[in-house]
């Protein structure tokens, strides 16, 4: 039993990476890992030829079933639905070429996870396994119980749909962090002109509050409207608020703390030196992965 547990722990980072990208939720991903571990413990040794492929099949099938039921809940979700933010970057590393690492990082971003929501659970699974985790079609076919031809068709369809929505620009990490730092400075100092200078004219601000009062239930678009919204929030903020820059889902972000507890996590998207999108998660059920202020960011 200990040997099987050690094998599972070896592949756990990969399994979490797949589950989180499938579900957009760290809590649900951890639940799937617990179920996968129970099934792994009960697996017959003779049926396990390749542990990595076997575990991938378990976690992927669990996530497909979970996502199918979750989609019903998301259709009735109050306001915009956003993924659960993860502090820092991916908690794992794999050897591979820079393009593979780039795909892993991009697939963790809030913007990309929102795009994946447009895919069916099966399309999402095939796309992630092929385009992000580099599984061959033979393995994918065994994982989802389809023929290789069907998997290729599903992947092609999913790739096309993602490509239509994927931003066509390259993210510059250092530039993005500087812009977000400038955003925070202008907001805290009340510099209206400075804030307008870092906001793209067509910037959009999404707020995921899960039905909480005082949270915008529709996207706010346009620099002036976003500026007024942000300063409006600042006027309503209590005295014990602390704002901390933090890497969220591998990209620039900030966390707003109230009395040392995370109140909101905002992931930013920066293009050409300006913020083009901000996705703020306020729903407390989605902030469990954000550490209290005294603990600091989670290690990457």
Write the layout of secondary structure elements.
Blueprint lengths: L1 H22 L2 H16 L9 H25 L22 H9 L3 H7 L4 H12 L4 H8 L3 H18 L7 H17 L2 H7 E10 L11 E2 L1 H14 L4 E5 L7 E6 L2 E11 L2 E8 L19
Parallel strand pairs: 1-6
Antiparallel strand pairs: 1-2, 3-4, 4-5, 5-6
Describe the protein.
The protein is α+β, with helices and mostly antiparallel strands and 300 residues long. 52% of the residues lie in helices and 14% in strands. The chain has eleven helices and six strands. The chain has helices at 2-23, 26-41, 51-75, 98-106, 110-116, 121-132, 137-144, 148-165, 173-189, 192-198, 223-236, and strands spanning 199-208, 220-221, 241-245, 253-258, 261-271, 274-281. A six-stranded mixed β-sheet has the order 2-1-6-5-4-3. Helix 1 (2-23) packs parallel to helix 3 (51-75), helix 6 crosses helix 8 and helix 9 (173-189) packs antiparallel against helix 10 (192-198). The longest helix is centred in the N-terminal third of the chain and has 25 residues, at 51-75. The chain is elongated, with a radius of gyration of 20 Å. 34% of the residues are buried. The model is unreliable at 90-95 and 296-300 (pLDDT under 50).
